[in-house]
Structure formats: structure tokens, C-alpha cells
């Protein structure tokens, strides 16, 4: 077994690992990158990219059904499900070179394609090599959680790792899990011609503002997605093409295909973390705000760090770690400015505190600003007037924003920036937004904070009357 010495050894070539590798090597550090699976990780191959490509195809299909309001005769689209999956594959293939082994080797990174395991506090073994490094970064991501439902080992099921390879359209897709993945896949498959039933043991989209989630769920149900909430699954049975989900209340739901979307499990198997003195649990590696583990040489980022499971969080973590292990500067993480989006139609986006969380944290000091998309001229012109923006404000600064509506994922960026930079609402109210755009809704919300002070102020009105009398 040959010995490799390096400055930084990264385990995992997903979003976080690749970002650290690219940044560190281009700034002069020696980097070894180890990946046992596919370059690009879950996001490129089985997550963000294929799901959004599938959603785009489904949106095109739905547009053919929704033309009547624009004076266009609606028609039921003919969906070639295999061709849709070809589109998904092309998108992955187009993006893949950016994450490829060849690109990173061209940057100067030593790439080892094998599974890694620690052999000591400062050594890792992989691909017939022993890698000794000054710093290690665990960026192994997560995998679909297979819940311990009786019968799960006897029936065929899909996860996000396998559903995008399915080329024959399911007649009736059963989805266990009403979180973002489950609801995105439910709407996309319904729009592509499948019957869909979502089974959620608690509340669908339960991590978001319930008022806004209700708008998304109402639209999905209107499109024909059956959503069963408070439905605890007690058993699975059947075979390919005929699967039965038994519920605690005695109901049985039958379908042709089953998708498990009940959460994700951090992938730390086989890393031999105990040998390295790295503490961990079922949520991930135990780290501080600086992402350093109980072994001062070892850091964890992204899903492996046990926090929010989003690709953009892994990228954010990469910047925090680079500051420390490449530049030697202190850096710590925060979650107060991290946004997330569910890419249903309408989209559902959140950053910072929800209304409930803000009221719990700040009590009566919280002001909640509301703006409906129905009052936005661009939303009306596009035929998408259903939606709502809520901004939670404390002492003139936003502490959270919740959006449901068209392009909510794009609109949330302004509020993420405002919270990250601790901007005052006056800065957003003073912004000039082009007309007509959806973005005007943010400016109007910020302006609404100052309206009572301007329009419901007797003292100000008296002053204005006086000014009008004395003006030449």
C-alpha cells in the first residue's frame, strides 16, 4: 500500500467536497479527493438536477392543459415517458463535465475512485493507498431512508436514486412521505399522466408555514393528486405492478409503483470513524459551529454535518471550511439566513423564521407584513395570481420571509440577502424594481411597513397642511 501525503483529504465528491477541492487546489493547497460512487454526488445524479428536469417536462405538459384562460384551446398532451427520461439524462450529461474526474485532475486534484475508511486519526485508506493529511473533510452526503415498515423488504420500491431511471410510466404511483421530495414527485408524475397518491403520517409540507403549505396542497389536489395526511403506514405487501399499503386506521391503498420519500440518512457507513476519534450519531458527525469534529484534523460539511440537508448548504459549508483550513482564518456557520425551496407549482420558499417561530422568539415585537400575488400586475398578466408573501420584522429588520407563488424560489433570494446582511426594510423599500415584475411584491411588502407612519399619522398630516399653506 503506497503512502500519499497531502494538505487536505476530502471524502466525497458531491457539492461540498467538490467546492472545497476546487477552491483549495486553486489557492495552492495539495488536495486528495476520494469518491466511491459517482462524481457530482446525489444532487447531480439523483437529486436536484434530475428532479428539476422532470418538473420542467411536467410543467410543459400542464401548460397544454391550461390554455383556456389565455384563449388557447386546451388539449391533453401525449406524453412519451421514455423520452421525458431521455431529457432528464441529457440535462445530467450536460452538467456532468463540470463535476467530472477529468476536470478536477486538470485543476491539480489527486482523485481516487474508491470507498474510504480511516485507519488512524490522521490517515485514510482508499484504492490501495494510505493518505496522510493535515486536514480531512467528510463530505459523504446522505441516502434515502428506508423506513422499517413491515413488508418493506418483500415489495419492490423506488427511491430518488432509482425513480429517474424508470422508463415506463407508472399507472398509479404511491408515495410514502409528504415532504418536499414527495410532493415535487407527486405533482410531476401527475402532470405526466400518472395517478398519484401521497401518504403522509403527519402533516404534508409540515416544516413550512401552514398557511402557505395549504395553498400548495390545494393546488395539487385540484390537479388530481390524492394526499392522505395523518395516515400511518403499518404494512406493505404485493409484487411488481400490484402493491398494497395498509394504514393504521384499516384503510388499504393499492397502486402499481411505490416511491419511498420518508427522509434521508447520513452516509457514514464504512468510514471507521471510531478509529479516527470522530464522534457521530444517527444525525451525522458531531461538529461545532466551525464544522470541526472531535478530532481537530477532521471537519464535516453538508448532510454529513448533521444539519440542514440542502445542496446550497453544502456549498456554504465549503466556504466556511476553506477559510479555516486553507487560509487559516476563523469562520463559523449560521442558519438564520439559509433559504429553502419546494419546487412545486406554486413554489414554496422560506428563509429565516416562519411567522410561528418569530412570534415564539420575539413575542409582540414581531410585525408580519403580507402581500398577495393577486395585487401584483405581472402575476395577473401571467395568469398566476394565487400566492402570498409574508415578511417577519423586528425593529425594522426582516428576520424571516415565507413565499408561496410563482418563482418563489427566485424571489426568496432578496430576503436571504437582506437577512444575511442585516439590512433594514428601508433599503428594500427604497429599491427601484422594474415594472411589471414579480419582484415588485417584495418592494411593496417593505413599503407597507412604513405606510401607517406616513398615512395614518395625524401629526404628519398637520405638518403637511402647514407646509401646503406656506409653500410659494
Automatic annotation (TrEMBL):
Cofactor(s) this protein cannot do without: FAD
Signal sequence region: none
One protein family per Pfam: Pyr_redox_2
Keyword list, A-Z: Disulfide bond, FAD, Flavoprotein, NADP, Oxidoreductase, Redox-active center
Domain Pyridine nucleotide-disulphide oxidoreductase dimerisation per the UniProt entry, residue ranges: 338-445
Domain of life of the source: Bacteria
InterPro entries noted in UniProt: FAD/NAD-bd_sf (IPR036188), FAD/NAD-binding_dom (IPR023753), FAD/NAD-linked_Rdtase_dimer_sf (IPR016156), Pyr_nuc-diS_OxRdtase (IPR001100), Pyr_nucl-diS_OxRdtase_dimer (IPR004099), Pyr_OxRdtase_I_AS (IPR012999)
FAD/NAD(P)-binding domain boundaries: 7-317
Family: Belongs to the class-I pyridine nucleotide-disulfide oxidoreductase family.
Name listed for the protein in its UniProt record: Dihydrolipoamide dehydrogenase
